[in-house]
C-alpha cells in the first residue's frame, strides 16, 4: 500500500525543499490540489522530486449538479485541461466532487444529471489514461440543498451507474456516521483511493489521525484495507490551517 500526501496539506507556498522533504519522509506520491494558485507549478516540483502525481479536480465554482448548460460546458473545458496536464506528467488518478442540487426537493432529477456528467467525464478521463475517482461527501444537515453523494447507498448507486471508481474520505464518512469497516467491505473493488484524516465526528476538520475521536489509527486503517485486498494509495489529507507541513510529515501516524 502506498503512502501519499494531498498537497492541500502543504498550503499555498511549496518549495523544492518541501517536495524533497515529503519524498524523504517516505511518501510515494502527492495529490495536486487544482484549486491552489500554484497547482501547475506544483506538478513540476513533484515530478522533479520523483513523486508520483494524482490530482484533485477543482470544485469551488464547478458544481457538477448545476442547472446551467454554460456552467456544464465550463466544467468539461476546465477538467479536460487539467486531465491533459495530468497525462503529460504521467499521473494516474483524478478525484471529483459530485456537487449539490439547488434544492433538496429536486434531488432525484438532479442526481440523474450528475450521473450523466460523471459518466461522460469518466470516458474523457479514460481516453486520457486516467481513472476518475468519485468521492463521498457530507450531507447538508439543513436539507436545504442536496450534496452528492449524501449516503453510502446513494454513493454506491452513483458509482455503479456512472462507471467511476471510488475515493473514500474517512473523515467525511465519520461525520456521516457510517461504519468504516462496513463501507470498505461494501465498496469492494470499486475502492481505488483513500483520503485519510480525523475529526470530532461533527465537522470536517481534517485533523491528524489520533487528534480527533474517530479512533482510526493508520495501523487500523491499513489492517481493514488489507483484509479487503486493497492495494491503492492512502492519501493523508490534513488541514494546512491547523498543522505545518513539518507537523504532518513527521507525525507518528505518517511513519
Ligand atoms: Zn477528501
From TrEMBL:
Superkingdom: Bacteria
Pfam families tied to this protein: AP_endonuc_2 (PF01261)
Keyword annotations: Isomerase
Gene3D superfamilies the record matches: Divalent-metal-dependent TIM barrel enzymes
InterPro entries assigned to the protein according to its UniProt record, in alphabetical order: IolE/XylAMocC-like, Xyl_isomerase-like_sf, Xyl_isomerase-like_TIM-brl
Single GO term (MF): isomerase activity
Protein name: Sugar phosphate isomerase/epimerase
Organism: Sporosarcina quadrami
Source taxonomy: Bacteria, Bacillati, Bacillota, Bacilli, Bacillales
